[in-house]
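Check out a protein:
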Amino acid sequence: MTATAGRIGKVTPTDTAVRARQSWAARITGRLSGGLVRFFLLLVGLFWLVPTIGLLISSLRAPEDMSVSGWWQVFAKPSQLTFDSYQKLLENGDITSSLVNTVLITVPATILVVVIGSLAGYAFAWMEFPGRDWWFLGVVSLLVVPVQVALIPIAELFGKIGLFGTILGVILFHVGFGLPFAVFLLRNFFAEIPRELLEAARLDGAGELRLFTRVVMPLGGPAIASLGIFQFLWVWNDMLVALVFTKSGSQPITVALQTQVRQFGNNIDVLAPGAFISMVIPLAVFFAFQRQFVTGVMAGAVK
């Protein structure tokens, strides 16, 4: 029995060779699989960028060139590239004013949602007041209310108080529908802050406002950045609310481009650069805050 146990516990050269071959094969497989995954992700990224690249090249081509060939022909004839379309875009008063309106709508709507949502999220997470949990459930329940349901009632309300067709009315609508998600997101994020940290700040004499600005806000930076990106993209790309609540003088870029398509079906020299500018600005905002966005999305995923 001892001899048998010795043979079982003893590692023979054959076993070592088998394990070496298996380890070598496992390493090769791991490297190949990693390379294949990277190659696949690279292809997905390139396919995702094709429409953006095509729109950029189309905005740099003359209308007569676009009418006879596809945008990929520019690689064989780079002399087709020109900035004349962007010059015409700057001369189009409807497009330029709508771009300004988009900024005037998106920036305040994003800032207000972030500020009010942060204050409310902190209050629901760390302040004691009567009915706190019930108030929070009421705010969260507003997440299930579709935007389409509120369009007509709020349009009638804005018409009675003189806000229909104004930029302020569109901002208030976006703020109202952005706050429930903002409060839900930030409250859950702020609630993960260690209580000991807040208690230590209170012992040092910090009030609620100082506690919020000096402790909670810096720690909640990733979640706040994620919320700001979500809100910015939603408001910037919105067309339904803007189509209902704006008039000719307050239309954002999405409605203005849709109007150009309806009125001038072949006005591609204005539509292409206008659509590219409308798309590249939110892309730039996203990539500028990409690190904070990923950190905020992943926050709470691991302990």
Notes: Residues 16 and 208 are 66 Å apart (CA to CA). The mean pLDDT is 80.
